[in-house]
Amino acid sequence: MSKFNDIYTKRIISNTNENISILASGSGEILVNTQPVSALGIATKTYVDTVASLPVISVSAATTSSYNAPTNGTLISCRYSTIGPQTIILPLISSVVIGKIYHIVDTFGNAQVYNITITTSGSDTINNAASVLLNGNYQSFSIYADSVNKWFIF
After folding, report:
1. Which tens digits make up the pLDDT trace of 73-90?
2. Does one domain contain both 147 and 78?
3. Are residues 21 and 64 in the same domain?
4. Which domain holds residue 100?
């Protein structure tokens, strides 16, 4: 990968004179540049596509016995399990975007002794339950929100 004027380039097909490159700029613009690849019979074309929203992983450190998951968070690092049990409270699905994903992790590896409970808000459910339990050391799981009132573990 090389950097040229804040554009990162990755060559995916290459020989001495011909290549296909994917370029991504800091503004989210993705460029696919094809130079003639005679062996494959590909003509010269340039395609431009703008990505509306690239996924960003933000880490939230849950350091209290009861922690409200932020609506803009992605990864929740549970760091209370060396002190006592912990409860992570998910926001209402109606307050997050459809498809919202959380990754919840027992970072300190003590959930077998001090369980971590993940609960929902309002009438929301996680796989049709009001809560789920992390009770294995270093255990983690990922959930996503549907458009109504259900979280699903995947």
Report:
1. 789 999 887 889 999 999
2. yes
3. no
4. 59-153
